[in-house]
Design a protein that fits this description.
The chain is built from 8 helices and 8 strands, in the order E-E-E-E-H-E-H-H-H-H-H-E-E-E-H-H. By secondary structure, it is an alpha+beta fold. The strands form 2 sheets. The protein has a 5-stranded mixed β-sheet. It has a 3-stranded antiparallel β-sheet with strand order 1-2-6. Strand 4, helix 1 and strand 5 form a beta-alpha-beta unit. The longest helix is centred in the middle third of the chain and has 19 residues. The radius of gyration is 17 Å and the shape is globular. The N terminus is likely disordered.
Length: 242
């Protein structure tokens, strides 16, 4: 499953690979009544064709495993969400529980770790999945204050599958609208500065047993209840139970 409007990203000093659209049959898994995007549907990566900036192997404000942790470092509850920004069921999860996670961070009832990975590049003609994933590290590197707002905007504007995905200009606009106005963030998005890092962390996450997105855990225990994942505020009682 995937997404993609907009034309090809603006040309810079790198070349873009023209990918011939291919009809892809998506494999899905049924977990507790919820259809999740299986990584096996798009397990084969398309090699990156962007230039990774030297010295940009990892971003600031990111855990060693590549997750972006938001909230009280001493929170008794930790929610981890593994997602691909092109995954439609991740968008559904965000629509139903994004506000719940923001509230949990505000009232210090939980910290949230967002593990953004990329395995849906083959669902677009411009590697939207990895370009969006790179943008996640670009904004996190700048600061965490606006990260959840940025994430909500990214999912709200998630492109449909089978097209070109959002352009780099659009990704920059979303970042700026969320509060990431530094020119370094825009340049990071254009250069795909964390592309190599993103792909390495994706391989590690998938090797760790994640086989669908979203994969949500609360204090290390995976949440498989469809009501908790895909109904408005469904995750709140799970967080409260800790």
């Amino acid at each position: 499953m995937s997404f993609n409007p907009g034309g090809p990203p603006p040309q810079t000093n790198r070349k873009y690979l023209v990918v011939v659209p291919i009809v892809v049959v998506l494999a899905v898994v049924i977990a507790a009544g919820v259809v999740l995007v299986s990584r096996n549907a798009f397990a084969k990566e398309i090699p990156g064709n962007a230039i990774a900036v030297a010295g940009a192997s990892s971003a600031r404000n990111v855990l060693a495993d590549g997750a972006v942790r938001i909230g009280d470092p001493h929170a008794k509850v930790t929610v981890r969400v593994v997602m691909d920004l092109q995954c439609p069921y991740c968008k559904m999860f965000e629509a139903n529980n994004g506000a719940t996670l923001e509230s949990a961070v505000r009232d210090h009832s939980a910290a949230v770790e967002y593990s953004v990975i990329t395995f849906l590049d083959r669902a677009s003609t411009t590697q939207y999945s990895s370009r969006a994933g790179n943008a996640s590290f670009c904004v996190a590197n700048s600061g965490l204050e606006h990260y959840q707002s940025w994430l909500a905007a990214m999912f709200a504007q998630q492109p449909e599958e089978g097209g070109d995905g959002l352009t780099d200009d659009r990704l920059i606009h979303i970042a700026q609208s969320a509060g990431y106005t530094e020119s370094t963030v825009a340049q990071c998005i254009i250069n795909r500065s964390y592309d190599t890092y993103l792909r390495a962390k994706t391989r590690a996450v998938l090797a760790g047993g994640v086989d669908s997105t979203p994969t949500v855990t609360v204090n290390g225990k995976q949440v498989t209840d469809s009501n908790a994942l895909m109904t408005p505020g469904g995750l709140a009682p799970v967080i409260a139970a800790g």
